[in-house]
Amino acid sequence: MRLNKTTIYYELLAVRCQRRDRQAFEELVRCFERRLLYYIRRLVDHEPDALNILQETWLSVFESIDSLRQPRLLPVWLYGIARRCVMDYHRGQYADRLSFGDEASLAEMPDDRLPIDCDDVQRLHQALRQLSPAHREVLTLFFLEDIPLEAIAVIVNASVGTVKSRLFYAKQNLKILMEKGDAT
Length: 184
Description:
mainly alpha; Rna Polymerase Sigma Factor, Chain: A; Arc Repressor Mutant, subunit A; 2 domains
C-alpha cells in the first residue's frame, strides 16, 4: 500500500484513538460515519436496522481500538468490523425466521412493480438490491468506497482471486439488471 497524506492521516488518527484521545474519536466518527452507513445500507435493506448496526460497529470500534495492530490499515479494520456486525445481524434474522416462520420476511420483500426512472440513481440502487450480498458488497467497497482489491480481500475474509471473481460477476449481473430495467 502506497503511503499518501490520507494514509498517514488515518494512521495518526488511529494512534490518537488508541491513546484514548476523545477529539480523535470524534474525528474518526466524522470521517467514516457516512461511508460506513452507506456500506451497511448496501447490505441491509431496513434503514433503522442499518443505523443500529452502525451503532454496534462504533461500540465495537471504541471497545477494540487497542487491537488494531497496523494503524495504517484503519479503514480496512473499520470496514471489517462493520461487516462482522452486519453478519451478526443476518445470523440473528435467520434465527428469527427459523423460530417464527417466513411470514414477516415475505411482508418486507420489495415490490418489483415499482416504476423505475432510467435517468435516476434510484434505478442503480434498485439493481444493487437485487444482487447477492457478496456481489453487492464487493461492488460497494471497490467502486463506491474506492478500496483496493487486497484490502477488500481482508475485509471479506477471502482471497484476492475470489474478490476479483465476485467483482467480475457482480458487474456482469448489474449490467444485466440495469438493461432489464431499461426494457421495462
